[in-house]
Design goal:
The complex is a heterodimer of chains A (about 625) and B (about 350). Chain A has about 625 residues and is of the alpha/beta class. Chain A contains 20 helices and 23 strands. Chain A is globular, with a radius of gyration of 27 Å. In chain A, about 55% of the residues are buried. In chain B, strand 7, helix 6 and strand 8 form a beta-alpha-beta unit. In chain B, helix 1 crosses helix 6. Classes of the chains: A alpha/beta (about 625), B alpha/beta (about 350). At the A-B interface, helix 1, strand 9, helix 9, helix 11 and helix 12 of A face strand 3, strand 4, helix 2, helix 4 and helix 10 of B. The complex binds thiamine diphosphate (TPP) and iron/sulfur cluster (SF4).
Amino acid sequence: MPNTKSKMKMRKAVVRFSGDSGDGMQLTGEIFSQSSGSAGNDLTTIPDFPAEIRAPQGSIGGVSSFQIQIGGTEIYTPGDEVDVLVALNPAALSANIKFLKPGGTIIADRDNFNKKYLKKAGYNENPLDDGSLHDYQVVPAPASSLTKDALKDLGLDMQSVSRSKNMFALGIVYHLFNRPMEPTIDFFEKKFKGKPKIIQANMRALKAGYYYAETTDVLPASIVIPPADLPKGTYRNIDGNTAIAWGALAAAKKSNKKLSLSSYPITPASEILHEIAARKDQGAIVLQAEDEIAAISAAIGASYAGNLSITSTSGPGVSLKTEAMGLAVIAELPLVVINVQRSGPSTGLPTKTEQGDLSQALYGRHGEAPMIVIAASSPDDCFFYGYQACRLAMEHMTPVVLLSDSYLASGKSPWRIPSLDELPDINISEFNGNLEDWGPYLREQKFLNRYWKKPGEPGFEHRIGGLEKEDISGHLTYDPENHEKMVQMRQDKVNRVAKKLPNQEVTGAQSGDLLVVGWGSSYGAINAAIMELIEEGHHNVGFTNFNYISPLPKNTADIFDRFEQILVCELNKGQFANYLRTQLPQFAYDQFNKNQAQPFFTSEIKSEILKILEA
Amino acid sequence: MKTETKKKNGKPLSIKDFKSDRNVKWCPGCGDYMILSMMQKTFTQLDHPKEDIVCISGIGCSSRLPYYLDTYGIHSLHGRAPAVSTGLKLANPDLSVWVVTGDGDSMAIGGNHFIHACRRNLDINIIIFNNKIYGMTKGQSSPTTPLGMKTKTAPYGSYEPPFNIGELAISAGATFFARVPDKSPQLLGDVMMEAYKHKGTSIIEVLQNCVIFTDGIHEKLTDKETKDENQLELKAGEPMVFGKDDEYGIQIDGMKLKKVRLDDDNNTNTLIHDPSEKETQQHVALAKLQLPDFPVAMGIIRNTESTSFDEQLHHIIDDSQKNSKYKNLEDLFHSGNTWEVK
Ligand SMILES: Cc1ncc(C[n+]2csc(CCOP(=O)(O)OP(=O)(O)O)c2C)c(N)n1
Ligand code: SF4
């Protein structure tokens, strides 16, 4: 039915669904993000669940939320401030009202704003009635009771009926955003196949909410977000951990190698292990190791055996892996170590995000032990950088650190599903000479890669290990000159990878007053800030975000040279800035750092930039 | 297992084929030499071709061994060889994988990986060179150093109760455990061959003499004079008897083993060794027999059948591939909710 209310066109909007942990807010959010994707919007989502597995019902600690930003332009973050807040109980309202924009819309389940729940959330008066929300548009919908009415003849138990109120709330949101319900009803039919009553319940609740909003005029206006201008193709939403897992599977396929993964569970990296464990159906060989040391050791064994070998973990696990990373460096074996960073040190804030492990990735090994370091910058590009990490490890016979973080791991963004053909080829150096001339540390000359000979190949029997090797022959030696040569060789191997990397690009001004620099997942917030500044007429600021960190892209110095001032933004005390100071000491670097175990907000980046521009 | 491939240029492999071109650098008289040469000898008899044999070690004197063997090999990290082998064997279950480790390497820093290798029953062979001391780092106590023995770190005598490797391995789930002195090459060779044939984690504890730090530590067991009385060489299906003239036997007394002098009316109850028994109780009891009250059990104490970890995993992989709802990766990528942007 066409929406006849007055329409308000918006370029982007932020919606936050919140309720009790048992209210299905994550699923509700997922369904809304699918419908937004289908409507052609770009989007980014982030869940926010309680740290405890089972917090008391109705308590603030038990509030589960899901935030999504949708837009008719490219969307880089889940948004700072919320336009529409769904709050299914008083605790959800209390916990989330701080995110809502002045004038924003609150969709509340008025039935749940009863004495008991108000008390649990710490309200003395009902905020829906006491005028305290006068800055906002409040839609106090009787969601629970109307859902109950809509479902009454279905013969469902009380709990299932009560659970369906999330779909009622979603129905209101659909009406607000002019969304068709049919694709979602199709989705219910697929998801709850064989459970006709559940399909019915969800469908009726969704429709009830939609028609309630339509007939009661509770919504001031409806919001129209035009489709974004995205590249053609088939899309799906993907989170960073799944994307990394799939990137590795794709790299195995493209290189014709078997994929071996060995990992030890840790938040927020475990889902990579879960996903690949389920991908035994694609031939993945998965070991849940007894600890992180075993995990990387097993990965080294699998790499020596000739498989594409990866190990996934988070900071504390990387700390345990460092000795073995050194072995992979000196043995010159391909290996990908994935660090889904969380806030540290030690156990830190295990469910929160930070970019605190960059120095560890770059330097966290004894001896001179250089590795390639790559960082992904959005949930969907975790696929590409996961793929690249595997590709570079195999092509260059060296271990690679891939950095992600909990923000990317649990966030989702639309991913244009590539065909395997369009992914870059993986060309592993093959030895074509005579067996007599071969040695385990013989190298091709362009990139200095040794050749990957694996057990099972007759005539190439050889030993590798942690002791220093003579170049070419691989024999143990304490020769001082040889050690000097090998230390340099291992560094050169990493440095030469730069020849293969794409040029670093700049958004906004290509030269001028200020270059804003980010790396990895700060991309979204900084990019959004830059876009807003450009629109507001600031043409003297450029932005560049690094995915390739060691080595740096070849044109990095050229870019830095074109700006008066460089501002490095990162979620730590300045680890990338310090690295740049050692790599490109000819430039001065200003820093903008945040250490709150939270991602950057676009607004804070923007005001920092404005402060500099106006100074 | 492959057959008829163990030849090189049509000729059978010889010990020379398994000698690398590197000089062996252990102290003269070190027990490691014997173990190396028995490995080389055993390797000539395997069904696996030379290129399918991999030797993985940790760190220590003993762990230098892969450099002296002309096979594929990794000299890995202190304690981590079982973990490295796990990844390698799962990646390619066709390989014959041999782990070489010391008592410090496997029982101290690598204890965790050791017990999990036993638990998983991965089809690999772990040879522990037990000299009851840290050789490479020059004489510190190890987890198998006997109580009272003086070491660099226990100058007044060790006061830490030691591990019994057999007890630990069997209790952790090892399906094969054997103990052999480095001075019994024949037995060592036989045991290596049996370990090779056994599907699952095989642990061989070699009582190895370190001429520098624990010289003679196994002498009571290996000396010609006392050997017969102090070793109980176990053979499948045979009675547990020992002594110069087999005058002693092992019998059971309630829950415990007892040593008896055999005479005419006391030899019917002597236990018959059954390494294939699934219950661990008697094997653990045998592994724990100690001087001076008992002889020390040698040979294959345990050899039971069970599916190996690598076989199990690859079975699951094959099955799930057959039954997958995704024909290929692209199918997986397109599963769930997708939409078109035109
Ligand atoms: C992480 C680490 N810690 C300590 C060492 C030093 N280290 C090398 S070998 C060794 C002990 C080896 O003893 P054992 O396993 O009994 O072997 P053996 O030398 O007696 O054959 C130690 C402590 C090391 N190489 N690595
Ligand atoms: S120190 Fe002991 S174990 Fe090491 S090589 Fe010498 S004799 Fe052998």
